[in-house]
Write a structure and sequence with these properties.
274 residues; Nucleoside Triphosphate Pyrophosphohydrolase; 6-stranded mixed β-sheet; binds zinc ion
Protein backbone atom coordinates (compact mmCIF):
# COMPACT_ATOMS: atom_id res chain seq x y z
CA UNK A 1 0.00 0.00 0.00
CA UNK A 2 1.08 3.55 -0.58
CA UNK A 3 1.81 4.14 3.11
CA UNK A 4 4.09 1.08 3.37
CA UNK A 5 7.32 3.02 2.92
CA UNK A 6 9.63 1.26 5.43
CA UNK A 7 12.50 1.70 6.07
CA UNK A 8 11.52 5.30 5.33
CA UNK A 9 9.41 7.02 7.94
CA UNK A 10 6.90 9.84 7.87
CA UNK A 11 6.29 11.30 11.33
CA UNK A 12 3.26 13.45 11.99
CA UNK A 13 4.36 14.71 15.39
CA UNK A 14 3.52 18.37 15.61
CA UNK A 15 6.65 20.43 16.19
CA UNK A 16 5.65 23.63 17.95
CA UNK A 17 7.95 26.59 17.55
CA UNK A 18 10.03 25.06 14.78
CA UNK A 19 11.38 27.52 12.27
CA UNK A 20 12.05 26.57 8.66
CA UNK A 21 15.58 26.34 7.31
CA UNK A 22 16.76 26.56 3.73
CA UNK A 23 17.52 22.83 3.58
CA UNK A 24 14.02 21.73 4.69
CA UNK A 25 11.69 20.38 2.02
CA UNK A 26 8.70 22.25 0.70
CA UNK A 27 5.24 21.28 -0.50
CA UNK A 28 3.36 23.60 -2.86
CA UNK A 29 0.11 22.65 -4.58
CA UNK A 30 -2.01 23.85 -7.45
CA UNK A 31 -5.35 22.26 -6.67
CA UNK A 32 -4.43 18.55 -6.46
CA UNK A 33 -1.09 18.87 -8.23
CA UNK A 34 2.20 19.09 -6.33
CA UNK A 35 5.34 20.97 -7.34
CA UNK A 36 8.12 18.50 -8.12
CA UNK A 37 11.46 18.44 -9.88
CA UNK A 38 10.83 18.10 -13.60
CA UNK A 39 13.25 15.17 -13.93
CA UNK A 40 11.58 12.93 -11.33
CA UNK A 41 9.47 13.02 -8.20
CA UNK A 42 11.46 15.20 -5.79
CA UNK A 43 10.42 18.06 -3.51
CA UNK A 44 12.17 21.43 -3.63
CA UNK A 45 14.10 22.82 -0.69
CA UNK A 46 12.81 25.95 0.96
CA UNK A 47 15.98 27.70 -0.20
CA UNK A 48 15.03 27.04 -3.85
CA UNK A 49 12.17 29.57 -3.66
CA UNK A 50 11.16 32.82 -1.99
CA UNK A 51 8.54 31.63 0.46
CA UNK A 52 6.84 34.09 2.77
CA UNK A 53 5.02 31.71 5.07
CA UNK A 54 4.55 27.99 5.55
CA UNK A 55 2.88 25.54 7.92
CA UNK A 56 4.97 22.75 9.40
CA UNK A 57 3.59 19.54 7.84
CA UNK A 58 5.61 16.52 9.05
CA UNK A 59 9.09 15.05 8.82
CA UNK A 60 10.25 12.49 6.29
CA UNK A 61 13.30 10.47 7.35
CA UNK A 62 14.03 13.20 9.88
CA UNK A 63 13.90 16.07 7.38
CA UNK A 64 11.24 18.70 8.16
CA UNK A 65 8.68 19.19 5.39
CA UNK A 66 6.75 22.45 5.19
CA UNK A 67 3.55 23.33 3.38
CA UNK A 68 3.22 26.72 1.75
CA UNK A 69 -0.17 27.96 0.62
CA UNK A 70 1.60 29.89 -2.15
CA UNK A 71 1.36 28.41 -5.62
CA UNK A 72 5.02 28.54 -6.55
CA UNK A 73 6.01 29.28 -10.17
CA UNK A 74 6.74 26.51 -12.64
CA UNK A 75 10.00 26.58 -14.58
CA UNK A 76 12.20 24.24 -16.62
CA UNK A 77 13.32 22.68 -13.34
CA UNK A 78 10.03 22.53 -11.41
CA UNK A 79 6.55 21.60 -12.54
CA UNK A 80 3.22 20.54 -11.08
CA UNK A 81 2.32 16.84 -11.18
CA UNK A 82 -1.30 15.75 -10.82
CA UNK A 83 -2.22 13.64 -7.81
CA UNK A 84 -3.42 10.70 -9.92
CA UNK A 85 0.01 10.64 -11.60
CA UNK A 86 2.43 11.30 -8.74
CA UNK A 87 0.92 8.73 -6.41
CA UNK A 88 1.93 5.95 -8.82
CA UNK A 89 5.51 7.24 -9.05
CA UNK A 90 8.66 6.45 -7.11
CA UNK A 91 10.22 7.10 -4.69
CA UNK A 92 7.09 5.85 -2.95
CA UNK A 93 7.89 7.70 0.28
CA UNK A 94 7.78 10.99 -1.63
CA UNK A 95 4.51 10.01 -3.31
CA UNK A 96 2.99 9.17 0.06
CA UNK A 97 4.27 12.42 1.61
CA UNK A 98 2.68 14.35 -1.27
CA UNK A 99 -0.72 12.71 -0.62
CA UNK A 100 -0.56 13.63 3.07
CA UNK A 101 0.46 17.17 2.20
CA UNK A 102 -2.37 17.35 -0.32
CA UNK A 103 -4.86 16.57 2.43
CA UNK A 104 -3.37 19.21 4.74
CA UNK A 105 -3.33 21.73 1.91
CA UNK A 106 -7.04 21.13 1.27
CA UNK A 107 -7.79 21.57 4.97
CA UNK A 108 -5.83 24.80 5.43
CA UNK A 109 -7.29 26.26 2.23
CA UNK A 110 -10.87 25.43 3.22
CA UNK A 111 -10.49 26.87 6.72
CA UNK A 112 -8.74 30.16 6.25
CA UNK A 113 -11.62 31.93 8.00
CA UNK A 114 -13.68 30.95 11.02
CA UNK A 115 -16.99 29.36 10.02
CA UNK A 116 -18.69 30.91 13.06
CA UNK A 117 -17.50 34.54 13.01
CA UNK A 118 -15.44 34.87 9.79
CA UNK A 119 -12.28 36.06 11.57
CA UNK A 120 -8.99 34.89 10.06
CA UNK A 121 -7.84 31.60 11.63
CA UNK A 122 -4.39 31.25 13.19
CA UNK A 123 -2.16 28.20 13.66
CA UNK A 124 -2.27 26.69 17.13
CA UNK A 125 1.12 26.89 18.80
CA UNK A 126 0.75 23.54 20.57
CA UNK A 127 -1.00 21.12 18.20
CA UNK A 128 -2.14 20.69 14.61
CA UNK A 129 -5.18 22.89 14.82
CA UNK A 130 -6.50 26.22 13.61
CA UNK A 131 -7.74 28.66 16.24
CA UNK A 132 -10.06 31.63 15.90
CA UNK A 133 -8.58 34.59 17.82
CA UNK A 134 -12.01 36.23 17.95
CA UNK A 135 -14.47 33.54 19.14
CA UNK A 136 -12.08 30.80 20.30
CA UNK A 137 -13.23 28.14 17.85
CA UNK A 138 -10.66 25.35 17.36
CA UNK A 139 -10.56 23.21 14.21
CA UNK A 140 -8.73 19.95 13.65
CA UNK A 141 -8.08 18.26 10.29
CA UNK A 142 -11.18 16.29 9.38
CA UNK A 143 -10.74 12.71 8.25
CA UNK A 144 -13.59 10.63 6.88
CA UNK A 145 -13.75 7.02 8.06
CA UNK A 146 -14.90 4.52 5.45
CA UNK A 147 -14.99 0.75 5.10
CA UNK A 148 -13.64 -1.53 2.36
CA UNK A 149 -15.38 -4.90 2.36
CA UNK A 150 -14.09 -8.14 0.85
CA UNK A 151 -17.10 -10.49 0.76
CA UNK A 152 -16.20 -14.14 0.36
CA UNK A 153 -18.24 -17.24 -0.36
CA UNK A 154 -15.96 -20.18 0.17
CA UNK A 155 -13.33 -19.91 -2.53
CA UNK A 156 -15.05 -16.99 -4.26
CA UNK A 157 -14.62 -13.24 -3.84
CA UNK A 158 -17.15 -10.57 -4.84
CA UNK A 159 -15.55 -7.91 -7.06
CA UNK A 160 -17.25 -4.71 -8.15
CA UNK A 161 -16.85 -1.91 -10.65
CA UNK A 162 -18.03 1.64 -10.09
CA UNK A 163 -20.67 3.06 -12.42
CA UNK A 164 -19.74 6.74 -12.63
CA UNK A 165 -16.12 7.16 -11.66
CA UNK A 166 -12.91 7.47 -13.69
CA UNK A 167 -11.45 4.56 -11.69
CA UNK A 168 -12.24 1.61 -13.95
CA UNK A 169 -10.44 -1.30 -12.28
CA UNK A 170 -11.99 -3.95 -10.09
CA UNK A 171 -12.81 -2.86 -6.55
CA UNK A 172 -14.63 -4.03 -3.45
CA UNK A 173 -17.79 -2.82 -1.77
CA UNK A 174 -16.92 0.39 0.07
CA UNK A 175 -18.59 3.32 1.72
CA UNK A 176 -18.43 6.04 4.35
CA UNK A 177 -19.40 5.65 7.97
CA UNK A 178 -22.49 7.67 8.83
CA UNK A 179 -22.95 9.64 12.04
CA UNK A 180 -23.87 7.33 14.91
CA UNK A 181 -22.68 4.20 13.14
CA UNK A 182 -19.90 1.76 14.05
CA UNK A 183 -17.57 0.55 11.30
CA UNK A 184 -19.18 -2.90 11.57
CA UNK A 185 -22.65 -1.42 11.10
CA UNK A 186 -21.34 0.47 8.07
CA UNK A 187 -20.17 -2.84 6.59
CA UNK A 188 -23.65 -4.37 6.91
CA UNK A 189 -25.42 -1.27 5.57
CA UNK A 190 -23.10 -0.65 2.63
CA UNK A 191 -23.13 -4.28 1.55
CA UNK A 192 -26.92 -4.28 1.63
CA UNK A 193 -27.23 -0.94 -0.16
CA UNK A 194 -24.69 -1.70 -2.89
CA UNK A 195 -25.15 -5.38 -3.67
CA UNK A 196 -28.25 -6.48 -1.71
CA UNK A 197 -26.46 -9.17 0.32
CA UNK A 198 -26.25 -10.06 4.01
CA UNK A 199 -22.86 -10.84 5.57
CA UNK A 200 -21.50 -12.48 8.73
CA UNK A 201 -18.23 -13.25 10.53
CA UNK A 202 -16.64 -9.86 9.98
CA UNK A 203 -12.85 -9.85 10.41
CA UNK A 204 -10.99 -6.57 10.60
CA UNK A 205 -7.90 -6.61 8.38
CA UNK A 206 -5.99 -3.29 8.21
CA UNK A 207 -6.50 0.42 7.77
CA UNK A 208 -5.15 2.83 5.20
CA UNK A 209 -4.85 6.62 5.34
CA UNK A 210 -6.19 7.50 1.91
CA UNK A 211 -5.13 11.11 2.14
CA UNK A 212 -5.90 11.98 -1.48
CA UNK A 213 -9.56 12.05 -0.40
CA UNK A 214 -9.09 12.78 3.34
CA UNK A 215 -10.31 9.25 4.13
CA UNK A 216 -9.26 6.63 6.65
CA UNK A 217 -10.15 3.25 5.12
CA UNK A 218 -10.93 0.29 7.38
CA UNK A 219 -10.67 -3.07 5.65
CA UNK A 220 -12.89 -6.02 6.57
CA UNK A 221 -13.20 -9.56 5.27
CA UNK A 222 -16.58 -11.18 5.80
CA UNK A 223 -18.66 -14.09 4.53
CA UNK A 224 -21.87 -13.90 2.59
CA UNK A 225 -24.83 -14.96 4.73
CA UNK A 226 -27.69 -16.70 2.90
CA UNK A 227 -28.59 -15.47 -0.57
CA UNK A 228 -25.46 -15.18 -2.75
CA UNK A 229 -26.84 -13.52 -5.89
CA UNK A 230 -25.82 -9.84 -5.85
CA UNK A 231 -28.38 -7.19 -6.77
CA UNK A 232 -27.18 -3.72 -7.75
CA UNK A 233 -29.42 -1.55 -5.63
CA UNK A 234 -28.27 2.07 -5.39
CA UNK A 235 -26.74 2.77 -8.81
CA UNK A 236 -23.23 3.29 -7.45
CA UNK A 237 -21.96 0.12 -9.11
CA UNK A 238 -22.22 -1.16 -12.66
CA UNK A 239 -20.91 -4.62 -11.82
CA UNK A 240 -20.81 -7.02 -8.88
CA UNK A 241 -19.58 -10.48 -9.73
CA UNK A 242 -18.23 -13.52 -7.93
CA UNK A 243 -14.79 -14.72 -9.02
CA UNK A 244 -13.20 -18.05 -8.14
CA UNK A 245 -9.83 -17.51 -6.51
CA UNK A 246 -7.91 -18.74 -9.54
CA UNK A 247 -9.95 -16.57 -11.94
CA UNK A 248 -9.65 -13.26 -10.12
CA UNK A 249 -8.39 -10.82 -12.76
CA UNK A 250 -5.04 -9.20 -12.14
CA UNK A 251 -6.56 -5.75 -12.63
CA UNK A 252 -6.64 -3.82 -9.37
CA UNK A 253 -4.72 -0.98 -7.78
CA UNK A 254 -1.35 -1.87 -6.28
CA UNK A 255 -1.15 1.06 -3.87
CA UNK A 256 -4.56 0.72 -2.23
CA UNK A 257 -5.95 -1.28 0.66
CA UNK A 258 -8.55 -2.60 -1.78
CA UNK A 259 -5.84 -3.94 -4.05
CA UNK A 260 -3.94 -5.56 -1.21
CA UNK A 261 -7.11 -7.25 0.10
CA UNK A 262 -7.98 -8.64 -3.33
CA UNK A 263 -4.40 -9.78 -3.83
CA UNK A 264 -4.22 -11.56 -0.47
CA UNK A 265 -7.35 -13.52 -1.29
CA UNK A 266 -6.21 -14.26 -4.85
CA UNK A 267 -2.83 -15.55 -3.72
CA UNK A 268 -4.26 -17.69 -0.95
CA UNK A 269 -2.97 -15.67 2.00
CA UNK A 270 -6.52 -15.36 3.36
CA UNK A 271 -8.06 -18.61 4.47
CA UNK A 272 -11.19 -19.99 2.88
CA UNK A 273 -14.14 -19.77 5.24
CA UNK A 274 -16.01 -22.94 4.33
ZN1 LIG B 1 -14.51 32.69 15.19
Amino acid sequence: MIQDIAPHRLRNDFSAGRTPSAEDRLLSYRDNAVLSAADGLRLPRIGDFSVFSAHYAFSLDGVPVWLTMQELPESDAWHFVESKDYRMQVPQEIAFACTVGESLHRWYRANRYCGACQAEMKDSKTERALCCPNCGAVLYPRINPAVVVAITDGDRLLLTKYANRPFSRFALVAGFCEAGESAEETVHREVWEEVGLRVKNLRYYKSQPWAVADDLLLGFYCEVDGETKPTLRDGELKLAQWFDREHIPDDYSTISLTGEMIDRFRTGKISVDK
